[in-house]
Amino acid sequence: MYNLENVLINPLFDISEVSVGQHLYWEIAGYEIHGQVLLTSWFVLGTVMIFGLIANKDLKPLPEGLQNFTELVTEFIRDLAKTQVGEEEYLKWVPFIGTIFIFVLVSNWSGALLPWRLIELPNGELAAPTNDINTTVALALLTSISYFYAGIRKKGLRYFRRYVEPAPFLLPINVLEDFSKPLSLSFRLFGNILADELVVGVLVALVPLIVPIPVMLLGVFTSAIQALVFATLAGAYIGESVEDHH
């Protein structure tokens, strides 16, 4: 006879272990981590760093070439931060919002443009870093920590008055809202990137020549939109935390 407790609990363990695709596990200090995510994340970070060094190794008063492109991106990020955070506080948050935007953008594009799955691993398969829920959750938690830090740094303990404004009975709703922000950020990005890569993978398997190309181009566009949405929401949350309520 089966133990009723095991029958009830085992399905919960099965659900908690559900994952998408296979993973290359590395064991570090007794913890298992997804090795393929670190590999592709290091590739993305290395690509951004090398491009930045090459583009800005010989800065000129009148930008040209790659320096012109990097300054265009910087201006775009600065305008984005100014719009979302506000004129008083935006400058100190440009590096954070810019880092989030560029990392998510290059990660998404690496999944849309690079044939990661052609690289064989002992176990698992390579994909965009943002194709793994652990990456998107980490980015969302960094954003949450940042807007809490921004609010407490500017207002001190008065920051927590926002949970009982405009009325104390809204406390549970306001607390739930703060918990839902990282959830929505992480699952929106993860779901969109995963769906895009799955669609492209299926089409490449079924019709490997012409049909997948328009879908890949659409993936490049939607990947850029997802990076913009993530960075915009991060800036909006920080702006909301430093906003003065009268």
UniProtKB/TrEMBL annotation:
Pfam families registered for this protein in UniProt: ATP-synt_A
Gene Ontology CC entries for this record: chloroplast thylakoid membrane; plasma membrane; proton-transporting ATP synthase complex
Location within or outside the cell? Membrane; Plastid, Chloroplast thylakoid membrane
Q: What molecular function terms (GO) are annotated for this protein?
A: proton-transporting ATP synthase activity, rotational mechanism
Membrane-spanning segments: 33-55, 90-113, 133-152, 189-211
Question: Which InterPro entries does this UniProt record tie to the protein?
Answer: ATP_syn_F0_a_bact/chloroplast, ATP_synth_F0_asu, ATP_synth_F0_asu_AS, F0_ATP_A_sf
Q: Is Plastid among this UniProt entry's keywords?
A: yes
Matching CDD domains, A to Z?
ATP-synt_Fo_a_6
- What keywords would UniProt list here? ATP synthesis, CF(0), Chloroplast, Hydrogen ion transport, Ion transport, Membrane, Plastid, Thylakoid, Transmembrane, Transmembrane helix, Transport
Q: What is the recorded membrane topology of this protein?
A: Multi-pass membrane protein
Q: How does it assemble?
A: F-type ATPases have 2 components, CF(1) - the catalytic core - and CF(0) - the membrane proton channel. CF(1) has five subunits: alpha(3), beta(3), gamma(1), delta(1), epsilon(1). CF(0) has four main subunits: a, b, b' and c.
Query: Per the similarity annotation, which family is this?
Result: Belongs to the ATPase A chain family.
Q: What does this protein do?
A: Key component of the proton channel; it plays a direct role in the translocation of protons across the membrane.
Protein name per Swiss-Prot or TrEMBL = ATP synthase subunit a, chloroplastic
Give the species. Answer: Schizomeris leibleinii
| Gene name linked to the record | atpI
